[in-house]
Each structure stands twice: as C-alpha cells, then as structure tokens.
Amino acid sequence: MSDAELLRELARRRLAKGTMDLDSIESTAEEAQRDFGEETLAAAIEALPPEDGRPVPCPKCGRPAAVKARNRVRHILTTAGELRLSRNYHYCQHCEHGFAPRDAALKLPEEGEVSTAMERRILDFGVNDTFESVAERWSIHFPTRISSNLVRRVVDRAGALCEAPLSEENLQVAARPRPEEPASMLTVATDGSMLLTREDGWREAKVGVVARGGCFPPGVERARRRIEDARYVAVLGGQQEFKKSLAAALAAERADEVETVVWLGDGAAENWTLARELCPFAIQVLDVPHAAHWAMECGKALLGEGHCLQRHWDARVHQLLDADGPDTIISELMECLSLTETDEHLAALDTVIGYYRTNAARMQYRSLRVRGMPVGSGIVESAHRHVLQVRMKRAGQRWSLQRARRMVRLRAVYRTAGAVHFHQALRDGRVRPPARARHVLVPNAPRRVKQRQRSLSRVSPLNRAWLASN
Ligand SMILES: [Zn+2]
Q1: Residues paired with residue 190 on neighbouring β-strands, in sequence order
Q2: How many CB atoms lie within 10 A of CB 226?
Q3: In what order do the strands lie in the sheet containing 283-286?
Q4: Cα of 114 to ligand 1 centre, how many Å?
C-alpha cells in the first residue's frame, strides 16, 4: 500500500466513527497530524544510533571528557509534542563543565525546555502580549498547553541575550542588514518614555530611531517616511548605555558615510551632547512641536488659561517659527515685556526666549522644509507607542527592573527585524562578529582614507553651513 492509499484508508476509518460536517473533518485531520507528528518524533529519536559511551572532546578545552551518567533524561517541548530524550551526560574535570553531546548533535538549545521551533512561536506571542494572555491564547492555536511561567522563562532567556550581546552592532546587523550603499540621508531622533517598575517607581526608558530616507517635498513627508525603514534602540538605563546602543545602530547604518544626517531633539542638552559625540556632522534640529510648545505655554501664562485669544497666539507662534532662526519670534516676545504684570509672566517669557536663544542655530526651519528635511520628531513619538507602550504600558502593568530592561531591548530588536525575522536575528546576533575589515586589511587603508575624504567632500551645502556656524 502506498503512503497516499494508507492515509486515505486511515481517514476513512477515523471519519466512519462520527458525523461528517467540516468541523469534525477538520478536527479529525488535525488529530491525525498530531498523532502522526508524535509518532514520527518518537520513531526518529529511536532510530538514532546508540551512543558508544567513549569519552568525547570537551567543547571548552578539547580534552577527553568521560561519561558521568548514562541515559540522563531531558524533556523538550516540541511543535510535534513532548520529546523524552535519554542521552549520555559527560563531564570535563578540567573545566568543571558538564554536557550532553547528543544535544549538540541535535542542535537543541543549550538551556531551557523547548525546541527552537517552539521558542520562536512562544517569543512571537511573548513580546506582543502579557504572559498570562499568551498561555491562554496558545490553546486556540496549538494542541499543546503551555503555562505563563514557561512563556516568562523563554522571554527572559531571549531578553538576557539582548541585554548582553557579544556585539550590539552585530545584533543590529542581524536584525536588519547593513545597507549595501549608505543611504543618501538619515534621520536620528531620541526621546524618553516612562515605565512603571516595582522596585523604583517610574523610570525613564530612552528610545532612539535611526531612519533611512531621502528628502521629500513639504507636505508629502508624513506619508512617505515609513517606519519600516528604521532601526530602533531602546534602553532602560543611563546615558552611557544608551549612547553605546545608539552608536551600534549608527554604525550598522554606515552613518559616517551618509551625506546628510538630521538629528532631531527636544532641546535637552544631553541630547545635543550625544549628537555631537556620535555624529559630529549631523545637522541638529530642535523638534518643531517642542519649540512651539514652550511659546504656547508662555501664551497661557500671559493670557491666562483658556483665554479666547490663545488660538490666535498659537497660530502666530507657528507662523513665526516657520523662518530661518528665532529672531522674529524673539523680538515679538520681547514686545510682550510691556504687558507683564507679575513675576510669573516675566519668568514665562524668560524661559521661552532663553530656550530659543540656546537653540537658535537648530531652528532653520524654513530652509530645512524647503529641502524636504524633517523638522518634527514624529518618528520617535510613534516609536514610543509601537516599540514600548503597546507591550509595556498596559493598564496595571508594573515591571521588575530586570525584566523591563530586557523587554525594552527585545521590543527594539523586534521592531527593527520585523516579526518574521525576529527569532533568527536573536540567534544570529549571538555569533561573535568577525574583526571589521578596515582594522585588518592594512594594504587597503589608503584607498579607504580616500573614500572617506570623498564622502566628506559630498557633504551638502546645508551641512557645511551648519558646520561653519558651529
Ligand atoms: Zn574541558
């Protein structure tokens, strides 16, 4: 009997027992798949050649390591059911390292209780939904049941890899390949977002976006800039940690060869320090919504909350900001000095004027707009939502610091790589990167210097103007 004939006969026998609606046919087919899968799994494991019990080289030092225990059992949850694997356990006296050669031969994950294929599925659910909800939803999709604790463990292990990768740049490249040619333009934007932790109350998670894209004429920018073309960085930690991660994303994007880099920020001094250190050639831009926000706050203070003239004030603010530099808006604000009656009024004016003077060189909005460059940091604000908030700021959520640190990083990799490539990116990101060619290929060095000089000569006029004025 051929395989096909056998399957037909089996199906006939299964269906002969019950009614014949599509629901029951479908579940019969699923049942058959499951039984078939479990049997195939068991048969394949039984068919493995027996282990001979001789010492094998230790994976760490290469010295022979003898068997310490025979038939040690490991349970692995696979997509085809539970696998009970008994195999020899070896121990290296020199390294004090125990291992099972069969696990390596089967390419099982070193740790944990799930197969690689299961891990991929659990992670896909676990970075998108709460652990409890994943365990519940799982049973709709798959016949095996899993607990919320299993989801938590799988996500924690993956998160630990992201938190301390061998190389952050390598993880970035694994998530999104390095461009063959550097983009003509990059937009970099950074911002902070608060997360509620158990140990420490609200803590700031820093998010950075490095987006490819050319210049677009005014008006079409919003529609054309796509978040799919972006790398994300997210860190629950200090500025140095954030800087390191952002540097890796910029290196993966070949930022030092890009003609025009626009760095958008909200005016916080540490932001510009970061820009100067990581991308000294970038055009720094004070994000327009933040620039307008402070003038509108000043209007509220002068007019009083809810005043009927506020909307005219706001419209005038936007009108005056659409210029090269804040000189006009500053002089109109100065004219309001005669209207000030209290110290609060004076302080409100002083704040916004000081803010504009500090950032004057970063407010060349008209020229930037004409050239189709971004002036608003909408990409990083939407990044807060789709990188962090959708998973980490649900009602009642409070995170342990360690788990939050890991999830923040996992989410950034997830959004950079996309759902389909996410798991493979995590695995590829674990490989230690080869030494970068430019450090070892000495004969090529002069050519590379020339390339670098050429790329500097390509700096756009606007960039040059920015560099000259600073
Ligand atoms: Zn050893």
Answers
A1: 208
A2: 11
A3: 230-235, 201-212, 185-197, 260-265, 283-286
A4: 26
Task: Report pTM.
Answer: 0.82
In a domain? residue 22: yes
Write phi, then psi, for 418 (nearest 5 degrees): 90, 155
C-beta of residue 162 within 8 angstroms of C-beta of residue 406: yes
Rounded to an integer, what distance in angstroms lies between the CA atom of residue 76 and that of residue 108?
9
State CA 87 to chain mean position distance: 38
Both 39 and 172 in one domain: the answer is: no
Q: Residue 67 C-alpha to ligand 1 middle, in angstroms?
A: 13
Could you tell me if 30 and 143 are in contact, meaning their C-beta atoms sit under 8 angstroms apart? yes
Total count of residues recorded for the chain? 470
Helix or strand holding residue 258 (H, E): none
Residues near ion ligand 1 (Cβ under 5 Å): 58, 60-61, 92, 94-95
Number of domains in the chain: 4
297, two tokens: 């706050």
All residues at 6 or more sequence positions from 305 whose CB lies less than 8 Å from its CB, including other chains: none
Q: Which range marks the domain in which residue 9 is found?
A: 3-46
Q: Is residue 68 part of a domain?
A: no
Q: How far is the CA of 264 from the centre of ligand 1 (A)?
A: 51
pLDDT in tens, 40-83: 888 888 888 889 899 999 999 999 999 999 999 999 998 888 88
| Lookup: tokens for 429 | 């990101």
Instruction: Give pLDDT tens digits for 432-448.
Output: 655 554 433 333 434 44
| Interacting residues of 235 by C-beta distance below 8 A, sequence separation 6+ | 205, 206, 241, 242, 245, 405, 408, 409
CA of 57 from ligand 1 middle (Å) equals 8
Tokens 């004057």 appear where? 360
